[in-house]
From TrEMBL:
GO cellular component, one term: Golgi membrane
Gene Ontology biological process: mannose metabolic process; N-glycan processing
The name this protein goes by in its record: MA2A1 mannosidase
Gene designation: Man2a1
Organism: Polypterus senegalus
Glycoside hydrolase family 38 central domain residues: 179-273
Amino acid sequence: MGFSRELHLAVHIQERMTTPSGQLGFFMVHLPEGTGAKCPCLAFALRLIERGQLEIATGGWVMTDEASAHYFGMIDQLLEGHQWLEKNLGVKPVTGWAVDPFGHSSTMAYILKRSGFSNMLIQRVHYSVKKHFSIHKTLEFFWRQNWDEGSSTDILCHMMPFYSYDVPHTCGPDPKICCQFDFKRLPGGRISCPWRVPPEAIHDGNVQHRAAEIIYSFALASVKKFSKMEVFPSSENYKMLTEARRNLGLFQHHDAITGTGKDWVVVDYGTRSLVVYNPTEQERTAVVTVYVDSPKVKVATLLGQPVMGQISAVWEETATISAEAYQVSFVTQLPALGLKVYQLAQGTDVNVLLADYNLYKMGEAIPVNSNSAFKVNVMQSNPMNYIIENSHLKIWCSGSSGLMEKIRLKETGKELNVKVEFVWYGTTSNRDKSGAYLFLPDGEAKPYSSSGSPIITVTTGAVFSEVTSTYHHFTHTVRVYNIQGVEGQSVEMCNTVDIRGEFNREIAMRITSDVNSNDRFFTDLNGFQIQPRRTLGTLPLQANFYPLTTMAYIQDEQVRLTLHSAQSLGVASLRSGQLEVIMDRRLMQDDNRGLGQGVQDNKVTANLFRLLLEERVRLDKTENSKPTSFPSLLSHMSSLYLNHPVIPMAVSHDFSTSHLLPAFSPLTSSMPCDVHVVNLRTIQSNIAIERLFNELKVQRFVPASLSLMYTASEGMNSSSIQLEPMEISTFRIQLT
């Protein structure tokens, strides 16, 4: 509910009435620019809060999504809201309020608990789950994290029992009765009750009949449950209640629910400096790619040391190489959370090599508009397989489709058939069809087919090698990096999808392997924890899809196959050994869930993944019975690097390089790989904090709640911290 409407409503309601609120981002929209603590709006809001007429619930900047959001964003928006409340109103919310997110995550329960909340409320849960909780009288429960063997993460949670949080679905089990207390639906208004029983006004003196009406509706529901209707005088009582309704006083109800590619820039130069930032807290070997305007490029550190690099073509179309833009990729070694400066200059260098290209199209000649800088071989017959490899991996791709078929781990010789394919989903022919909120397919997916064979481009280079398959609706690239370290041990996959011309279709990428996973697979929750899943054949196909924020994996006794994702998507494992992710959706109709339109604003969409194959060396026989699972350290780092790529920044022409340091290392050493700095904001195992900073000294170091609402006493000041597994901790640090 928007703040401006709430404050307006609060002027007219009796002092004993309260309205909840929680999205500060909407509140700020209605405040004058540059609003300070003396703003009349804030003073009025504070009076309402002090009188108990306005309650701030959750207090985040928004009511965050809980399915596809990453925990970084979930925490950040909560911290932003709580900091604003502390500064402007001095309010500390104690109750979580989530009525709009489509589904709820235990990650949010954890975040609220660690932020100092004592209870929370949730609404959008499947009706069958609500029914189960209601039957067992567990609509109020303590929500505990799966890994918590004690009760430190417990938070009291109330699940709203009915379909919605609007008036017809909140006062009792019968919405047609509850609707009669939604006075905005009185005759003469624009909104009516859809159950053909219109609300009628009642005099102020008979307000007590409201309680009788509510009790009656619960009693009637109970009688129906136990099949005792013949002994319950429902008709006679209902007539009396109808008469009482005509005497109910009028209150005006206000409802204000707020509704529900990457451009590249060519680096032009004589000589340009490039600052590269490592956003992770470990020293890191990575590949940096920027666009330049010449194929003749030298790359060096600021001190003049040459750097190995690769010049690649920029393909404007499938067989057209740009004459104006080129990619230069080079390997960098970056300090933890640090910066390093490189120089790009025109000229040739034996350390920077041009990539080679082979183009294939079954039985057809390809007219290539080739740039003379590159060697491009056009082949009219396809081999059995295309092979790309580095020191860690060997990848086989199909000679006819260009899509991956097999992976080998060179260190152990382990091979696994891993077949990538694409499939289409349609939508059901029933009245209810797929839309922005609903996925209602017309059965199992159908294999993708194209009228012609794809154009397959094989790139071989010093820094990376790749196979790109271009189809009518998508371009799929499989790449391996020729570097040591984390990013050389997984396969990068990129899909560029364009289904703007389709009608009620959804395209998915399916990975089929030899992994004997049966009906079990694993997905992350908000990038924070892993949740074991089971595919249930008794449920509709769509019920077996789950949110994928950062990773999903399948495993058997020998191997684990993990799909890391740089974006949130839907994932399923509909067969043993399979993982399937929805790439894009184009749907022509509204699904009657509030958006009011279909999904027709499609753009060309890029999705980036890493596929990691690992052998399992220590098998836990009891794992299948546990409610928890965890990624390996390599998998954790692969996800971290994928979602926190290095950031190149071109230095302005008019900035003198004499003002630049060759490198900057804020930490004296890398942090352990199982520790992650979620954020370091300027605001307001044991780690020796003082040793992390070269020239800064820690003057004050105080533990705080997750969103900084509560801070430990001054006596808690410490120079070292103890981090427990799976815990996120917040500290106020003062540096001098």
